[in-house]
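Format is sequence with structure; example below:
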Amino acid sequence: MRCSFFRVYFENGFFIILLQAVIILKRFEMELTLDLNKRYTYADYLTWMDDVRRELIEGFIKLFPAPRPVHAEVSFNIAGNLWAILKKYKGKCKVFDAPFDVRLPKNGETADDKIYTVLQPDICVICDLSKIDKRGCCGAPDMIIEIFSASTGKRDLHEKFMLYEESGVKEYWIVYPESKDITVYLLQDDGKYDAGKVYEFEGQIPVHVFDDITINIEDIFP
């Protein structure tokens, strides 16, 4: 008789097992090469089957460096506070942290090959659960939180600020781990963000998408 990788014989009342082959499996990782000057769609994005974190902003690739430990810790603390709030008050909203894809279609074009902006906010709160599908969120979350770092700060303050405003994100936080403060932007009736309000360490910060809820800022920063 035979099995997959060995030969087994019966001889003189004994089983004799001979090694037929030794198979060494090697994993070959192919490096994905993409043109950063080319415009891509979400349909293209779905074909990139590697572990590199990317965003698409108006079709152009933006890469993520690995987050610093303080970035990860602050993100964990904020998300934990928001999850606790939702659990306590049984809110209908859901909280997601990165990596979680948020697609921002324009002009109602939700087909994969018509979407040019796919972002991965550090944290987002979604109250319209119809926007959530198996691939993430299609449409604007109610609240987005980005944690500032030198490598991505310009993107958070300019490109993503304008995209979140344009798509209708009601509340946008930019969190500064070094100075331990948070700037909150609220969407106004004219579709534009206000000038922003700074909340400093040792204070309370309201979560405007929830009624009468605040978070202790000391619980956010390590």
